[in-house]
Amino acid sequence: MTDDINEGQILMGPSDVCALLGIKESTLRKYALILQDAGYKFHVNDKGQRGYFQNDVIVLKRFMEIKQSSDMTLEQAAEAVMAWVQQSNVAVRVMDKKQESERYNDDIQALKEMVAKQNELLKELMMRLDQQQKYIEESLKKRDELLMQSLKESMETRKMIAAAKEEDEKKKKGFWSRLFGK
């Protein structure tokens, strides 16, 4: 459908439509997205904001009636509304498949870019972890070497002290032995 079908009609904002239908804005957004996924096209300005014409309000009201009166999912209710729209010749705009696939292609491309960035970040983090592990291992090795060196020096010092004590005792013993003749 072209926009000239809606010429002369008033474009309403979400708050006006919510007041007419007695629902919250979050509920309106949810319903509009479900209907869009089913193929219904709402007026969207250049900032990506939805506007609603009288026909849109009729479709939303019918959607709410169908979803309340039967045991069907919201998606099934949207499909039923789309069938009703086509049968009753209500002037609506239906999103062509090309626009829908372009929307999904953009989403898929954005997801691919995000995954690529995350993969790069993961590679960088892995490199940092490897560097950190290498640093830790080198630090432990140096610490162990210094500890062993300190132990060896300590042992050598103790041996030297023990040897010096032993020599002193020999000298002392020798003096007393000489003094008392033993």
Automatic annotation (TrEMBL):
DUF3967 domain sequence ranges: 141-166
Pfam families (UniProt xref): DUF3967 (PF13152)
UniProt-listed SUPFAM superfamilies: Putative DNA-binding domain
InterPro entries: DNA-bd_dom_put_sf, DUF3967
Top-level division of the source organism's lineage: Bacteria
Keyword tags: Coiled coil
Ranges in coiled-coil conformation: 94-142
Name of protein: DUF3967 domain-containing protein
